[in-house]
Write a structure and sequence with these properties.
The complex is a heterodimer. In chain A, about 75% of the residues lie in helices and about 5% in strands. Chain A has 14 helices and 4 strands. The mean pLDDT of chain A is about 80. Chain B has a single domain, classed as MetI-like fold, CATH 1.10.3720.10. Chain B contains 11 helices and no strands. In chain B, helix 1 crosses helix 3, helix 3 runs antiparallel to helix 9 and helix 7 packs antiparallel against helix 9. The two termini of chain B are about 25 Å apart. In chain B, about 45% of the residues are buried. The mean pLDDT of chain B is about 85. Classes of the chains: A mainly alpha, B mainly alpha. At the A-B interface, helix 1, helix 6, helix 7, helix 10 and helix 11 of A face helix 4, helix 5, helix 9, helix 10 and helix 11 of B.
Amino acid sequence: MKLKYIVNKFFQMMLMLLIITFITFIIFYVLPADPALRMCGKPCTPEKLQSVKEFMQIDKSFIVQFLEFLHGIFFGRTYSSSTGGVAIVCDTPCLGYSFQESKTVTELILARIGSTFSIAIGASILAVIIGVGLGILAAKYQDKLPDKLINSFCVIGISSPAYLVGLIAVAIFGFKFAVFPSGGYVPLDQNPYEWFHHLILPWLILATITSPSYIKLTRSGLLSAFSSDYYSMARSKGLSGRKLFINHGLRNCMLEVVTLFGLNLGGLLSGAVLTETVFSMNGLGKLMIQAVGVTDISIILGCTLFSSFAILLANFMTDALYFVLDPRVVIKRA
Amino acid sequence: MVGSVVIIVLTILLAVFAPLICSINGQDPYTYHLDELDKSGVPLHNSTFNHWFGVEPLTGRDLFAIVVFGARTSLLIGFGATVFALLLGSLVGVIAGFVGGKLDTFLSRSTDLVLLFPELIFMIALRSLIPDWFPRELLMILVIGAFGWGAIARVVRSQTLVLANEGFILSSRVLGAKKFYTILRHLLPNLMSTIVIFGAISIPGKIGSEAALSFLGVGISAPTPSWGRSIADAVQWINVDALYLVYPGLALFLITFAFNMLGDFLNKKYDPRRL
């Protein structure tokens, strides 16, 4: 039952990914008037254009091109050119080759992935801590001052674009007081302290901005638990304090919190473009924006697919986690 | 609640009468005032009699006019994209809920797909494919709307499913009315309040999308004023003076805030998702 549910979800994810790949592929390889010319970049010499066309196998049908691309994702592929150019080996998962950067898209993505993942994972974890914490506080002091303050914070938080708050924070803490670096990223394996130091500000800002949804969920979940029969029952049987609160109160809203975590992580991954611009980090989002600037279709396509995959994976893991928290979902949702 | 309505109405008036309001001190958002800048492009004054909010660094364009005209862009795209999304979503939702069967399955799966789509990434990606002559405003409305109909489709579908089994709909069908007539005459009027409320709730998100895309430089292009782009332009001056950031930023925050308050209020009063 458990395995069937997870396998089922996994196939749903793969199907979704296939559809997204197909749609993206059509958008970028088929719709443009001259995709090869767009791939080629500037300056585009006739020889270069020729090898681009051969790499893309532009003379073959669209379906063949798509299948070759899919094959490349799972098994890697080798781009070869008849005009004497060197063959390029693109390892699994091959997401294409950028003629402008003369690198495979996978290489380019892997080189930038650290900052994007560090921001997204750190911020989404911190958001849960802040959100659930404040949500508990709001529920405990329902309709009293703390609850009202937290509620105003929620409305303001939801209305503030993260990049705007981020910029103001950079202006204040980065430049004015210079407590934190105003931007940039240091890889974890290079200098853990600097890694942390550069990420605190982005984490805090993003977590604060995304925490209101958790606050609302936790608050309403706890309040409905407090007024439920099973809560009164547990209480009248003599259970009290932390155990009552955690097992019978908090657990009631954990399923929704986990759902939100999956969505939030996905949102932060695709929203990385904004964060990276604000905190001058050279991540995946920046790579994509730069690629749009010079119309490097291979990179844009690769980044789109990669981000979609990351988001779908986050959702899949959430679905799998459901089972641990509430086995009933398997019966309801499978 | 009253406050948010006041802000919304004021912003709409500001947007509609933008040329008139700016003509009070004879400004527009396009003219360069290089005499207001020093040699490195930094404005000489923060606020003057002629330029209420001061001028933009480098170009010297009037910041007040930029913020006022920015409201036009923001609301046009916010409303336009919302209406487009509501049309698409209602259409999909009604058909899925009313016709049912395989079509419902297909439409529901498509809705799931749209909800899961990394829309920001796609909106950015699309920018590189659309030719420059295509009007940016229309493009933004179409793109933001086309990715934003998932939630409304779900709500409308579930409500249609409930309504389709109500007596008055069944009677209409039994009396021999065509499906199309029943939908138009009996179903839609009952869905209208849900659709309108949902529209109000989703406006701030659409406004935010426009601002975010313009902030990234893949939205509204210069010289059409846009708050998002003004914020982006202010970034390189952030260690000189953060004020350039404050005006467009505050405007964006206020309108989003007002719509969110309104949406919150409407949502509490008549929650369309309660069904």
